[in-house]
Amino acid sequence: MSIKKNITANFFASIWTALMSLAFIPYYIKLMGIESYGLVGFMASIQAIAILLDLGLAQSLNRELAKLSINPDSGNSIANTFRTLEIIYWGIALLVLCVIFLFANIIANNWLNSEHLSETELISAIWIIGAVIAARLPIALYTGGFNGLQQQVKLNIIIVVSATLQGAGAIAVLMFVEPTIHAFLIWQLIISVIQLIVMRYALLKSIPKNDGGKFTTVVLTSIWRFTAGLTGITLTSILLMQTDKILLSKMLSLTDFAYYAFATTIAAIIGRLTSPIFSAYFPKITALIAAKNENDLIINYHSGCQLAAIIIFPISLSIIFYSQELLLLWTHNPALVSQTWRLVVLLVIGSTLNGLMTLPYLLQLAHGRTKLTFYTNLVLIAFAFPSIIYATQIWGAIGAAWVWIGINAFYIIVSLHLIHRRLLIKEKWNWYFNDVGKIFLSAFFVLGLSTQIINPEWSSIQKLFFISFFGILAIIVSTYSATFIRPYFKKFYLWKTN
After folding, report:
1. Quick one: pLDDT at residue 491?
2. pLDDT, tens digit, for every residue of 434-453?
3. What are the pLDDT digits (tens) for 387-410?
4. Structure confidence at residue 224 as a pLDDT band (50, 70, 90)
5. What's the distance, Cα to Cα, between the start and end of the chain in Å?
6. Chain centroid to CA 159: how far?
7. What is the 3 state secondary structure string of the chain?
8. Which pLDDT does position 445 carry in this prediction?
9. Model-level pTM?
10. I need a surface site. Which of 231, 264, 275, 425 has the fewest CB within 10 A?
11. Per-residue pLDDT at 345
12. pLDDT tens digits for 159-198?
């Protein structure tokens, strides 16, 4: 499967899943209440923390299958790798389920600060959350398998259908069955189980002819070093990504935490946009490194970095410049907007910086080098915990959002420099100036100019069309400023005109 088809499929799925997850949030809040939505945000945080027990297996499966798939006679090796890691992963999912069940009472009574939900309601909701997370965990492994085999079109069809059922189906359940957090969670569990079964079946069908696969320690021996390093990165990265939400779920009321969770959902759009690029480029760059093809590696690295910047900057700057207008257009809830728009701006800035590190991080993993990110994350964790506690006590959730910006600024200023001291040594300044700098200035100029033109008296529809027009214009101008992407854009235009 070509990288262009994979990127196209990945972007469509990411945009659609983002639409399904975002479009219905105002209705979730309206039907269930803001405090119940806080539990949805809490579930997302717990699910992210549960990935700590992934042990790097999903990414290891991705990397190993990308390397093995080069050989057309590797069906048995692929099947054995998949089966070995799957057995371990299912054990992890069962462990997560048991732990959440056992600690549900403690979480309900000693951690969450609910004003309207009873203790019984909280405990039963946490039990269902545990089941949902346990069902979703193996999906990450199967996703890694699809990506490694470069069967991303098939994967994304399943993802799109599942996201539609989860989002739109939940609205139907809340409207026609019961408008409670329990009804919402049970529906998520049902769809997650169906998605799990379908993905496993489809992945097995995608593996080349084999003898069925079996558990073997040979697989573990071959991947343990990379997996151990990746486990360290995963552990520290998730702690960094979730530290704010972990601490705020304790320090804030469930209602105030729901506002912060709402804002983080908006900021997560940036991660959804860069995830398809990572999924498409990782097996390609891994294969180029294995083939020692440095020229094509440099081209693919910079094209990936520029593609990420072209997508990130116009969208993030649109949200930053027009956060209040866009949130009000979306939610029709002035009270919600007043509580969240500043958080959205700050969290999107931090997520933008984080998204720009997608390809440099990918480059490290493709080379099998994990120490730098691991030690960097350790330093940042030591900074993040006390900083978030202090900042939240003084400034509330806004303080935690500023810490998020600081963490990601460190990645851009320090980590990127250290990465390029070891890998693609001569390409650092190319990244700063061509991959990021020119594209940022292009998007900033277009959208900054638009803020001087927009009329505050316009209707909501007029504002939406205006912002959309300048967002698209920013993407076009940014594309023409990207040295590695511009030729592909011109080829596409010439093909269309001829």
Report:
1. 52
2. 899 999 999 999 999 999 99
3. 999 999 999 999 999 999 999 999
4. low
5. 26
6. 14
7. CCHHHHHHHHHHHHHHHHHHHHHCHHHHHHHHCHHHHHHHHHHHHHHHHHHHHHCCHHHHHHHHHHHHCCCCCCHHHHHHHHHHHHHHHHHHHHHHHHHHHHHHHHHHHHCCCCCCCCHHHHHHHHHHHHHHHHHHHHHHHHHHHHHHCCCHHHHHHHHHHHHHHHHHHHHHHHHHCCCCHHHHHHHHHHHHHHHHHHHHHHHHHHCCCCCCCCCCHHHHHHHHHHHHHHHHHHHHHHHHHHHHHHHHHHHCCHHHHHHHHHHHHHHHHHHHHHHHHHHHHHHHHHHHHHCCCHHHHHHHHHHHHHHHHHHHHHHHHHHHHCHHHHHHHHHCCHHHHHHHHHHHHHHHHHHHHHHHCHHHHHHHHHCCCCHHHHHHHHHHHHHHHHHHHHHHHHHCHHHHHHHHHHHHHHHHHHHHHHHCCCCCHHHHHHHHHHHHHHHHHHHHHHHHHHHHHCCCCCCHHHHHHHHHHHHHHHHHHHHHCCCCCHHHHHHHHHHHHC
8. 95
9. 0.72
10. 425
11. 96
12. 999 999 999 999 999 999 999 999 999 999 999 999 999 9
For 422-471, the three-class secondary structure string (H helix, E strand, C coil) is CCCHHHHHHHHHHHHHHHHHHHHHHHHHHHHHCCCCCCHHHHHHHHHHHH
